[in-house]
Amino acid sequence: MSHENYQSIIETLHECMTTCNHCYDACLKEEHVKMMAQCIRLDRECADICAYLEQALGRGTPFVSELAQVCAEICEACGNECKKHSHDHCQKCAEECKKLVS
Amino acid sequence: MSHENYQSIIETLHECMTTCNHCYDACLKEEHVKMMAQCIRLDRECADICAYLEQALGRGTPFVSELAQVCAEICEACGNECKKHSHDHCQKCAEECKKLVS
Amino acid sequence: MSHENYQSIIETLHECMTTCNHCYDACLKEEHVKMMAQCIRLDRECADICAYLEQALGRGTPFVSELAQVCAEICEACGNECKKHSHDHCQKCAEECKKLVS
Amino acid sequence: MSHENYQSIIETLHECMTTCNHCYDACLKEEHVKMMAQCIRLDRECADICAYLEQALGRGTPFVSELAQVCAEICEACGNECKKHSHDHCQKCAEECKKLVS
């Protein structure tokens, strides 16, 4: 199985990573950063695991299911946190995270 | 400046990372792995720095030019090594790397 | 809970990452690289997940148990592969990996 | 040149990464998070590049000087930001960062 077989999941991971990093960046610029502290933290966790899994899939890792399960749990937590905040970047992030929850 | 502004470079980095990881994976499966040792090594270096820069751009890093310069140097070295090998995955990798050499 | 609480596991992860990266580097320089292909692949997987978990612990990730479980599985696979090879770097790597298998 | 040759720098990088991640975690828990936004951002940048360079040295990267230069610049920026804040975690972080500035 090569990286082509995972093309769809790789694209979703990539979009989620991008959105989480953007949300992280935007949260740090918000007026009320304190309210966003957990969002900042989970955005980073989520971006990092999505980036990790994306790279791992691309290099033919034998640990797809183990890593995908962790990634889904982190995406779920991040999405749940983002959903609480009305900022566009948070709402968009919640949507992207949801796509990776199994 | 937000992640939208870097959309084009982010996509190129992403494509390069994907191609390097695929080349790494394919090189490890080649009949003559020994000949591919330097290619395996540089594919990893290049995939890692492209992934790093892509994430950094996405989170609004203040160190764009410094990181982009290192990335260009690693892409150049990886592309030069890949170019030496006739495998399709190496030739494709050489092409992608070249796009990131300034 | 802060990073001090995980000091012992962090040190073990760090030692394992270092040993895996050294084994990866040494395997790529071996005379018979082809025999080492799976070792090279798993050394990278293992170094990457150990580095990831180490950083995650250090930044107070809420996903300790999920990540630790994946890490243990990858360490086990890497240790099992390394154990097959008589090179000193492989045997040392097998030992370090074993310390992280739950 | 193997990973033993870089043992001292690897340990300094490791200590800096740990301290930056701890400072990042602690800043997110501070009462006045807004004041710490730039510190949070730079702690992450600095932890990530230190972790990256540490791994790269461990696997015999051919790009030591290029990566070390970027790392020194990011450490300098992070240390300068941390120095402005009186929290213990910031002051300790400033000290560690300074050790990596060439």
Automatic annotation (TrEMBL), chains A, B, C, D:
Domain of life, source organism: Bacteria
Name of the molecule in the record: Four-helix bundle copper-binding protein
InterPro entries to which the protein is assigned, alphabetical: Csp_YhjQ, YHJQ-like
Coiled coil: none
Entries under Pfam families matching the protein: Csp (PF03860)
